[in-house]
């Protein structure tokens, strides 16, 4: 009864906090958690819900963790976006608890450093560059994932993760958040099916602002001083299908297709309605003897309105290669974050180690 009263008190306190704070559900929230981890997944345009089978499954679909073949598995990834302005890092570790279940911990960080703080550049009519300071802005997340093979349905695995989010913009603002993801995978012969529910209970970010740092400048510029608020990330569903096929002797192929479904209003996606928007992405991996890999992918399909009023369909192409030797795997991916008129290519490197 004592524990029950404590839990009830926490729930009431949380409800009161939500009631007092401003609550918003923007269309794009915690987008750093939508970028993806591992050069393999990036090279295949993030089509991973059905085929992910290593430590990175803690992010892509926790159910895939049950396919890890060794007792321990670890992975590191680093990427630089926009000519090195933004740094994206990932670290993951997974371990088999027993023959049926696997546990994984993942860390993700997206940061922009050395942002100029020019609030005190001009005082009166004097410009003094020595007053310019710099600060960093970062988005951070820790995911704790658990997966288990279903003992009643053969070849079915289910998994979930609990994520803690911390975001900050220097000393001006920060937010703490939490949420849940859930997933399932079903493997039958050469076919692979996957379902991933991101932010299945919605993810809540509680923002707080250092008004003492902002008040003077905001008042001078006529801006409204921000207030503490709750930002909600709404659920999205990803349905994936894949097929593994032997081509010739030691050559093999793995094809994957993901359909990401969002329910926060119309988006610029191939299938778009007020109820649901569907964004497809596809990936293909060719391998030689499971040692050398070549990957391609396409996603982010959009209709872009031109200056003459016509619309043009664009997409984001990805490319990757990989090599695996014994317990070590090295992967590289080249992604295009722009369009044909202003390509913004990013290089992604990752390393994975299996050990007993």
UniProtKB/TrEMBL annotation:
Leader peptide range in chain numbering: 1-21
Signal among keywords: yes
Keywords: Signal
Protein name: PorV/PorQ family protein
Organism name: Flexibacter flexilis DSM 6793
